[in-house]
Design brief:
Blueprint: E1 11-14, E2 19-22, H1 50-80, E3 90-91, H2 100-110, E4 116-117
Antiparallel strand pairs: 1-2, 3-4
């Protein structure tokens, strides 16, 4: 109905480096980790490393995002069953690999919780 997708460019101009760089991934544009100097603020403790703090914050953001993705998939699986899940994603309880004893202990620990696995790419 007249809605057209706009393709987003993979490249983005990085003002700090003065060149075109990728939007995501390796050597991405406007990357916080490429900053050679971070100015200290009055709130910073003496001896604290702002680079380590930035890496830790990024790890926390990534972990929170992965947790949210898993929660969304769990909600979809509980509401609509296996058919509602995207292709390539399956429930752990549906997997039949490994010895029977190992599977039963895994299921006992999981109980009624839904855990999703994605195939390796």
């Amino acid at each position: 109905k007249g809605i057209q997708k706009k393709k987003r460019s993979k490249l983005l101009y990085d003002e700090a480096a003065g060149e075109w760089r990728r939007r995501f991934g390796y050597k991405k544009a406007n990357d916080d980790e490429d900053i050679p100097i971070i100015e200290a603020t009055k709130d910073d403790k003496v001896g604290s490393d702002p680079f380590t703090k930035g890496r830790q914050e990024k790890k926390e953001r990534v972990a929170r995002n992965q947790k949210q993705q898993k929660e969304n998939l769990k909600r979809i699986a509980k509401a609509g069953g296996k058919a509602a899940l995207p292709a390539g994603i399956s429930l752990v309880s549906d997997l039949g690999s490994g010895p029977a004893k190992e599977r039963s202990t895994r299921r006992r620990h999981l109980k009624d919780e839904v855990i999703l696995t994605m195939p390796a790419i």
